[in-house]
Design a protein that fits this description.
38% helix; alpha/beta
Length: 413
């Protein structure tokens, strides 16, 4: 936590420190703000605020700058204040089913960089942690390995010795390390592996729920306080932001939309039930349905190429998949009433060929009075989404986490 040191601790000094922490917390939560925005959010008088800001800027804790604009407008540009980017970084890691993704953000809420590397689905946890360490090392040097999935948007090297914690996303429900569920998932020793590797606390949560958090903080739903996020990947899952707070649910089971039944007589799911949405809309399921319809595709890229070429079997499969997804989303909407639905994951790269059937089915199944109050959007953060969500977990002061249980770390394992 950034703070300013004081030699005395009288009532006026404590009051000033309280005002400083108020300003720092607002900048930590919301990123760059103008003095007027800080005044409106803090409730401090103009004189007090300007005095506090002057002290923070003078100490180097806060920096002032004018955001770049493409078209210069009349009048003086508004100066924005932010935490000093050089004060430290936060790192997030996403252990997806078949890839590792990492991302880093500085204390000014600027994404320093991200990187990814694919791997076999049966890779051991020590090997996955090794990949994460290697990817973070590329960020630390400012270099990238495009052959391994590459990185995007690096602005500066990450200082790994400045880390205070690492936020980590994993597949499936997250429970206390050492529990029966954690042992079944094989993640009971993961926090300790990461702590030994990086020497900092580890905060663990479901990676799809973290992607929902990231889209609500930095991505497609940053303007909404009620968000339903659905990710269509090798698995199907999601997350909920309700009333401006991320919802975890008891035992970490919130957002398991992939296990809502859509076909009671359908195929058996890995969860033990039959006909779950995941058996119909996961990547493998969609490719299987496409081949059953006469299409030829060995992987997702070939299927997306067929979709782009308007190949009839591909479009028909996406129409049916989208219809099933839309029906499930409508049912969830009736329960939680989101204002924004964000659809992410690799299958969302099909674009309108998938999203238009989803939206049609959603409107069809929603109550008439709700149809015009839900906005469907495609996710914007891509592969880095869950890793960025891990960073938001580290920055636990985020308003979206105000009612969220303290996440699992090796300290309470």
């Amino acid at each position: 936590m950034l703070s300013v040191m004081h030699e005395h601790d009288g009532p006026l000094t404590r009051l000033r420190r309280s005002h400083e922490q108020c300003v720092l917390e607002l900048l930590r939560k919301h990123g760059p703000l103008s003095r007027a925005e800080l005044g409106a959010r803090s409730g401090l008088s103009r004189t007090t605020l300007y005095d506090i800001v002057a002290g923070l800027v003078g100490s180097g804790t806060v920096v002032a700058g004018t955001p770049h604009v493409e078209v210069r407008k009349r009048g003086r540009p508004v100066e924005k204040l932010s935490l000093n980017p050089a004060a430290g970084e936060a790192v997030g890691i996403d252990f997806a089913r078949r890839a590792v993704h990492v991302a880093a953000v500085n204390f000014a809420h600027e994404v320093i960089g991200s990187a990814s590397e694919a791997h076999a689905s049966d890779l051991s946890w020590p090997e996955r942690v090794d990949i994460a360490g290697r990817l973070l090392a590329t960020l630390a040097t400012g270099s990238s390995d495009d052959s391994a999935g590459g990185g995007r948007g690096r602005k500066a090297a990450v200082h790994l010795d400045a880390l205070s914690a690492i936020g980590v996303g994993v597949v499936g429900p997250t429970t206390d390390p050492g529990s029966e569920n954690a042992h079944a998932q094989g993640i009971d020793g993961l926090p300790d592996l990461l702590r030994k590797r990086f020497g900092v606390p580890v905060l663990l949560d479901n990676n799809t729920r973290l992607a929902a958090l990231a889209e609500a903080v930095w991505g497609a739903a940053a303007d909404s306080s009620d968000v339903l996020y659905l990710r269509l990947s090798h698995g199907v899952g999601g997350g909920l932001v309700v009333g401006g707070a991320l919802h975890r649910g008891r035992y970490g089971l919130s957002g398991e939309f992939g296990h809502i039944t859509v076909d009671p007589a359908g195929r058996q799911c890995e969860c033990g039930k039959t006909g779950c949405l995941e058996t119909r809309a996961s990547l493998d399921a969609v490719l299987c349905r496409y081949r059953e319809a006469g299409g030829r595709a060995d992987n997702l890229d070939q299927f997306l190429d067929a979709t782009s070429a308007a190949e009839r079997p591909a479009l028909e499969v996406l129409e049916r998949v989208g219809s099933e997804i839309g029906g499930v989303l409508a049912a969830v909407c009736h329960a939680v009433g989101p204002g924004v639905i964000v659809v992410g994951g690799e299958l969302a790269e099909a674009g309108p060929a998938l999203l238009e059937p989803v939206e049609r089915a959603l409107r069809q199944h929603l109550m008439p009075m709700a149809r015009h109050h839900v906005d469907v959007r495609r996710a914007t953060l891509g592969e880095a989404g869950s890793a960025l969500g891990g960073i938001a977990l580290v920055l636990h002061e985020s308003p979206l986490l105000s009612h969220y249980p303290q996440p699992v770390s090796e300290e309470n394992a």
